[in-house]
Amino acid sequence: MQANNPRSFHKGSEMKARITVLPGDGIGPEVVAAALRVLQRVAEVYGHQFEFQEGLIGGIAIDQTGDPLPEETLALCRASDAILLGAVGGPRWDDPSAPIRPEQGLLRLRKELNLFANLRPVKLYRPLLDASPLKPDIVAGVDLLVVRELTGGIYFGPRGREGNRAYDTAVYTVEEIERVLHVAFRLSRQRRRKVTSVDKANVLTTSRLWRETAIAVGRMYPDVELEHLLVDACAMMLMLRPTHFDVVVTENMFGDILTDEAAVLAGSIGMLPSASLGEDGPGLYEPIHGSAPALAGRDVANPLATILSVAMLLRHSLGLETEAAAVEQAVAAVLEEGYRTQDIAQPGTRVVGTREMGEKVVQKIAAVGKSVHEGG
């Protein structure tokens, strides 16, 4: 799951990679543009060659092609080393009775590329300690990773509507559960060796299967602590004792809800990146926030979640750990200097727009790279 894509070329310190860019809707094009500047600077500073190709997805794809995931876009994604996505959706396509919706494009892309493991790190940067509505003594030191199963469960099970009756069905197999659990346990070995498996085993049959499978997989990792929490208890503990968690692994819908809740811990949903990975092929990298159409075109959206998603792209798809760390360090340095977009603004901080925040990170990466090349 975490290896260079065979389509990329890596010789010495030089990496050649093809990256598909899907700006999408709303603020997607703005935050993606800032993240692309960061990727371009990384290539310049560290001597890599990144080729970018752009495709349509979501509402804009419906407008232009009638399909939220055109076959041309899917082909571009299959032929790439990694995919960077902005956001999809908006009020123009928000009719719940519409047969075609922007979100269908994203769901299909995940399914077609078999991106079954969604990694969502939640880290509170020290300068944002007061940006969270929770007390500083609760959120200080928060650093957790949610691993969400992404291609099964209620979002993909049989569904329908029959008159005044509607249904959505959650379906999981042992194999689907096992593979995402292995991802969580392997990642925990790179962290603090603790996995919290989240389910609703007191009510749901799929959750009972999930817990049985988690226990079986856990026996293969005797060096990792495994605990089980019901999803409602987990939601409460995220707000009361978030530092309790290291790696949290759960099914599709629970993971979707819990990670949006966890945005409170980081100060803003605009700070949270994500990676969606499969066994092979390109990974998909995107901020967890939506398209925020009310902010579109105003140069006020926070690009840091997308920029931090670029760090995950460098790490997980291209195997460039030094470069990934440089991006994360650049974000931390910009925050330390007091620069903020409006969603994380605090008294005494300097509020900047989407483009300027991106450029501040770009400048820091150049400084970090210069230090690296000079042996600093």
Describe this structure in words.
By secondary structure, this protein is of the alpha/beta class. The chain folds into 2 domains: 1-117 and 275-376, Isopropylmalate Dehydrogenase (3-Layer(aba) Sandwich); 132-266, Isopropylmalate Dehydrogenase, CATH 3.40.718. 40% of the residues lie in helices and 21% in strands. The protein has 12 helices and 15 strands. The strands form 3 sheets. Strands 1, 2, 3, 4, 5, 6, 9, 10, 11, 12 and 13 form an 11-stranded mixed beta sheet that branches. Helix 1 packs across helix 10 (304-316), helix 1 packs parallel to helix 12 and helix 10 packs antiparallel against helix 11 (321-336). Residues 2-7 have low confidence and may be disordered.
Topology overview:
Layout: E1 9-11, E2 14-24, H1 28-46, E3 49-54, H2 59-65, H3 71-78, E4 82-87, H4 102-112, E5 117-123, H5 136-139, E6 143-149, E7 159-162, E8 165-168, H6 174-188, E9 194-199, H7 205-218, E10 225-230, H8 231-240, E11 247-250, H9 252-266, E12 273-277, E13 283-287, H10 304-316, H11 321-336, E14 339-340, E15 350-351, H12 354-373
Parallel strand pairs: 2-3, 2-4, 4-13, 6-11, 9-10, 9-11, 14-15
Antiparallel strand pairs: 1-2, 5-6, 5-12, 7-8, 12-13
Helix pairs in contact: 1-10, 1-12, 6-7, 8-9, 10-11, 11-12
